[in-house]
Design the sequence.
C-alpha cells in the first residue's frame, strides 16, 4: 500500500519539481492571467495533487485542462476553476456527476450546456 501524499511531501523532490514543471506549462500556455500569479498556479496544482494522490493523474488533468483552455481561448481563472472541478469529481463517475449537475440546474442555459460539453470532451482525445 502506498503512503498518502501529505502537505510536507510537496516541498520535496520529485513532487516539488513535478508541481513546478506543471506550473511552468501553465505559464507557457500564455493564457490571460486575470490577476492570478505563478504562486497561485503552484497552489492550485498542489491542491489537485493532494486530492488525486497521484502525480501522473495530476499531470494528465493539468495538461488536459491547459490544452482545452488554449483551444477554447479561455483564461487562467477558467483553468483554476476547472482544476477545482476535476479535483472535486476525482473518484466519482464523470458522466453521472455532470448529468446530475444539469438536472439540478432546472432549465440549463447556453453557458451551462457549453460547460457540460467542455467537461465531457476534456479527456476524449486521451481515450478516457
Sequence:
Amino acid at each position: 500500500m502506498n503512503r498518502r501524499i501529505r502537505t510536507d511531501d510537496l516541498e520535496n523532490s520529485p513532487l516539488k519539481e513535478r508541481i513546478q514543471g506543471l506550473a511552468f506549462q501553465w505559464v507557457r500556455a500564455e493564457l490571460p492571467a486575470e490577476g492570478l500569479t505563478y504562486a497561485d498556479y503552484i497552489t492550485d496544482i498542489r491542491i489537485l495533487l493532494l486530492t488525486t494522490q497521484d502525480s501522473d493523474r495530476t499531470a494528465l488533468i493539468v495538461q488536459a485542462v491547459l490544452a482545452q483552455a488554449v483551444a477554447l481561448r479561455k483564461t487562467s481563472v477558467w483553468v483554476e476553476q476547472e482544476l477545482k472541478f476535476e479535483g472535486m469529481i476525482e473518484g466519482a463517475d464523470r458522466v453521472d456527476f455532470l448529468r446530475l449537475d444539469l438536472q439540478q440546474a432546472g432549465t440549463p442555459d447556453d453557458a451551462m450546456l457549453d460547460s457540460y460539453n467542455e467537461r465531457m470532451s476534456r479527456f476524449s482525445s486521451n481515450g478516457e
